[in-house]
Design brief:
It is found in: Cell membrane. It comes from Octodon degus. One of its GO terms (molecular function) is olfactory receptor activity. The protein has one domain: Rhodopsin 7-helix transmembrane proteins (Rhopdopsin 7-helix transmembrane proteins), CATH 1.20.1070. Helix 2 runs antiparallel to helix 4, helix 3 packs antiparallel against helix 5 and helix 7 runs antiparallel to helix 9. It has 312 residues and is mainly α. The chain is globular and about 60 Å long. The protein is 77% helix and 2% strand. The protein starts with a helix and ends with a helix. The longest helix is centred in the middle third of the chain and has 34 residues. A three-stranded mixed β-sheet has the order 2-1-3.
């Protein structure tokens, strides 16, 4: 550990997209636009969920948490990426790298758990409609949201702690932020035991929630098919379709990145997959929930009309 601390006290070099210098200007403009849209879109969702009384329901309570998560999730990596794209200094300190890794893992783990909570909410709404308000009462909603955050940060603390104990060799990270698979590739001795423990933790945080969500939606599909009216079926599928689309986008990229063996992980492919779930997915979430949701669109128009009436 003494050699590790001395060797890496100056930090790491994030290679980023310097292998494709012709793409850097395009990526800087593209990412800047999408990051701005992410900030505006998710902030708008949070504001709408707080301002409109009709959105004071469990579904929109959890949606506001998801939007806040997406804001923090993308902000944990994108500013660093933009700095690297516009300059020649691609360095990050050892402490900064660990902090970024911890925060990124914590927020990603929290979102994994929160999506399960949102699936449970949809299950209660569709499969137990008469008891929905009794089941999803305010205290339970706050407890579930808090459990998602606490569970995510505890998981990140464990995984970051395990990585801190690993001896590393090399200063170059072939990525645009300190992501776990790239960090593990810097290990300079056999760390099979540590990696096995971390893989089990990733299965619990990524694969198990995905299974629980699919099980919830299997029950939801059965309940919806029993509804006789086509309008009732459309409404039930519409309420759940947005959440299911978000789940597929998030878990598809997470499973690709974190549940494949480290030896087969491609750093070049991993960079572009990471661009998708750190930049594209956070802006898609507010678009999916607004364009496919009449309640959110109605709340948005009310707020805009109110602002227009109050204007000069």
């Amino acid at each position: 550990m003494r050699n590790f601390n001395t060797t890496f006290r100056d930090g790491f070099i994030l290679v980023g997209f310097s292998d494709w210098p012709q793409l850097e200007l395009f990526l800087f403009i593209f990412i800047s636009i999408f990051y701005s849209l992410t900030l505006v879109g998710n902030t708008s969702i949070i504001a709408l969920c707080r301002l409109d009384p009709q959105l004071h329901t469990p579904m929109y309570f959890f949606l506001s948490h998801l939007s806040f998560l997406d804001l923090c999730f993308t902000t944990s990596t994108v500013p660093q990426l933009l700095i690297n794209l516009q300059g020649h200094d691609h360095t990050i300190t050892y402490a900064g790298c660990l902090a970024q890794l911890y925060i990124y893992l914590a927020l990603g783990s929290t979102e994994c758990v929160l999506l399960v909570v949102m699936a449970f909410d949809r299950y209660a709404a569709v499969c137990r409609p008469l008891h929905y308000t009794t089941i999803m009462h305010s205290q339970l909603c706050h407890a579930l949201a808090m459990s998602s955050w606490v569970g995510g940060f505890i998981n990140s603390l464990i995984q970051t702690g395990l990585m801190m104990a690993m001896p590393l060799c090399g200063h170059y990270m072939n990525h645009f932020f300190c992501e776990m698979p790239v960090f593990l590739k810097l290990a300079c001795e056999d760390t099979g035991g540590t990696e096995a423990k971390m893989f089990v933790a990733r299965v619990i945080v990524v694969a198990l929630p995905a299974v629980l969500i699919l099980a919830s939606y299997a029950h939801i599909a059965q309940a919806v098919l029993k509804i006789k009216s086509m309008s009732g079926r459309r409404k039930a599928f519409g309420t759940c379709g947005s959440h299911l689309l978000v789940v597929f986008l998030f878990y598809g990229s997470a499973i690709y990145t974190y549940l494949q063996p480290i030896n087969s992980y491609s750093e070049k492919e991993g960079k572009f997959v990471a661009l998708f779930y750190t930049i594209i997915t956070p802006i898609l979430n507010p678009l999916i929930y607004t364009l496919r949701n009449k309640d959110v669109k109605g709340a948005l128009w009310k707020v805009l009309r109110r602002a227009r009436d109050l204007g000069p």
